[in-house]
Amino acid sequence: MATVFGGLKKLAVVLVALASVNSAVAANWVHLGESSDGSDKHYIDVESVKKLPARSSYPYAYLSASNSGQIVSFFTKRDYAKAQKTADGKFYNYTKEQWKGDCANNKISLQGYIDYTKGGSVVGSAQLNYDDWRTVYPETIGENALHAACLLAGYRSTL
To answer: Where are the domains of the chain?
Structure first.
């Protein structure tokens, strides 16, 4: 279970301030929280948040039925306190993940990830060519990431 430092109100203030600043294309990582055991810290790249075009049909019924059109894309980063190991034995210290989020239905879908060493070398990656929508649960890092992305995209006015 993940814990959040400073609460959602503090995160909302930071995100609103960052959204109003017109900055360069570089990543702008904002801390979302960390695991309860301190094994990893989570961040969202506020510069990566993008509205995705509404589509008339999705592969999952809940999207087809709602046709919310409130779909966003965003990147997160997970820093590990201790190096992790890939299936083939390579060590990595952080992971960057791309997500798709449904702001109207509180669901997210992992699109892909890249695992990096402390020095920035890539040791593993995956690209998912399908949507695997999952509900985000209250008081989790997933909820914080989705709410932040939806706020930055203009689909929510508060966290």
So the answer is: 2-153
What one-letter code names the amino acid at 118?
Answer: K
**Following DSSP, what letter does each residue of the chain receive, concatenated?**
-EE-SSHHHHHHHHHHHHHTS---SS--EEEEEEETTSSEEEEEEGGG-EEPPP-S--SSHHHHHH----EEEEEEEEEEEEEEE-TTS-EEEEEEEEEEEETTTTEEEEEEEEEE-TTS-EEEEEE--S---EEPPTTSHHHHHHHHHHHHHTS-S--
What confidence tens digit (pLDDT) does each residue in 112-138 have?
999 999 999 999 999 998 889 999 999
Q: What's the fold here for domain 2-153?
A: Lipocalin (2.40.128)
Number of residues that this document lists for the chain: 159
Q: What is the pLDDT of residue 137?
A: 96
- pLDDT exceeds 50 at position 16: no
**Overall average pLDDT of the 89-107 stretch:** 97
Q: Sign of torsion, CA 21 71 4 41?
A: negative
Query: CA 120, CA 107: separation in Å to the nearest integer?
Result: 30
pTM of the model: 0.78
